[in-house]
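For consistency, the fold was encoded as tokens, which produced the following:
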Amino acid sequence: MSEFNAESPEATPLRLRDVTFRNRIWMSPMAQYAAGPDGLPTEWHLAHYGPRAIGGVGLVMVEATAISPDNRCTVADLGLWNEEQALAHRTLTSFVSSHGAVPAVQLNAVGRKGSHQVPWVGAGQNEPLPVADGGWDLIAPSAIPFGDLAMPRPATAADLDRVVEEFAHATRMAQLAGYQAVEIHASHGYLLHQFLSPLSNHRTDEYGGSAQNRMRFPLRVARAVREAFPDDKPVFVRITATDWVEGSVAPDNAAEFAKELAAIGIDLLDVTSGVLVRDRGARPPNREGVNVEFAAALKDASGLAVAPVGQITDLTAAGRIIRAGKADAVLIGRSLLRDPYLALRTQPKDAWPVRYQRAF
């Protein structure tokens, strides 16, 4: 039986800047591939995110949302590159806020991992969507494809300037949409992570070579997002602690990156690992709380708040992590897909929505 209750550390509020989260059990961003080619949220998104807010989590993180049409994974990705999209997102943010959770959104540029099929069509994320069939050209640090996906072209200085401004613009759209926090996706093999790793970044200019140079572009993005979002609202970064493969990002590299993010004014690290390359041996090991110790180490190194994600399956595990001081919050993914009311399961009757209390 979980010990999650009103007196548990994981049930206590957390304040970041001027935003207060009612508890430390948070919903991780998980792609739904339910938008149309216009990137607008649909009824599915409200039906998906709404119950998790009703279900008691402290934060609802909306899935990876593209900063531009050519930074989508699929034609069904959400977008925040224009005002029409921002206004449409208000339905989500208003509903989530009205049920006590903080609405947040993860902003993403995909780099070489873009223009592929949705997971349930053909070979899914392993099957490229050709330009002739509605796909788009890809940029990356270097001309190195991800598995069977299309060959990207190396990003020019003008491309990088454009991506920085697109992140800043998407951040302003997130503010217009009503999001109370934004997260920069700098992991799982997407564009910013690609710059961080020497396996995907073979550049010889100021954005390649040394670890300091490889951090340069992600740090430019982090500064732009922090400057574009209101001072009273927090900015998170999803950071990779290790790539689980020799010669790539390791915990000491992640610690140096985390320190630089702290200096910029980032508020929290969403700690994950792996998925830079398609090699099955580079996947995170299958063990409970696989990224928890990494999160604790990054918290110590940077002084930032941290929230690990990955194989945290229930409230018992979440509570144990927070009570041990290894994290300030936890992000739960698949367990919340299975049960939107997970955070309420061990709560007394009066903690549930009044409309549901006759079920007890």
